Model the fold of this input.
Amino acid sequence: MVLVIIMEKDFIITEIVRVISVGKEKHPDRVTKFRADLKSNELIFQFSGNINVKFGDQRFNIGANSVRFLPEGNFDTYEVEKIEAAECIDVFFKTDRPISSRAFVIDATKKEYISGLFRKLFAVWVSRGDGYYFECISLLYKIFAELQKSNYIPASRFEKIEPAVNAIRRDFLTKSFEVSELAAICSISESYLKRIFKEKFGLPPKKYIIQLKINHACELLSLGGYSVSEVAEICNFSDVYYFSKVFKEICGVPPSRWK
Done:
């Protein structure tokens, strides 16, 4: 992963060309060669899988929960070697000035909110509802805003909430956590817990848990073998109506239309 990047911070998105979802079955060959003359920038969120990417003179190994940027321009090589089949959403767009002359990859494992923004952008794009284009540009700006936040806090500070984070990631599908319970696990106050969560993840604990649930719900719905009611139950929502309301708020479409 490339963690040190040079990214222009003062650019205008002039056009979103298209937004596509690429499933695991899309490119069956082990190595896929893409056109190296890119007519627009690409911003790609990879939800799963593991791949090696050759882009010009750069080489990346890219795993799940990562964002990669490919700049517009003519490059010698653009190849993807599949180690484990990947699923991603790819946004093709143009700007008034180069964002970066180099490709880069950002680890978004600790930025669960970004995956939801990509899912919502794709859902709004394909829905073609009133005002969809401007909403998509707004969502893309939000994604860049999140990418430009370092979300860095000292390791000693994160360690204070790590027991709560581990408990949430282990049991978010089976338990309903209260902030008071999470604070007690960490032996800190509720206000301090909320503050560190917001600094690290960009979300308070409750919204962090909901984002994890919705991410999992999207994966289940994409499989096609579950009803909306079943997904709501699996993801530990109190009822299907509340689940549908929250899902639409985060993803832009109701769960029945997600596929």
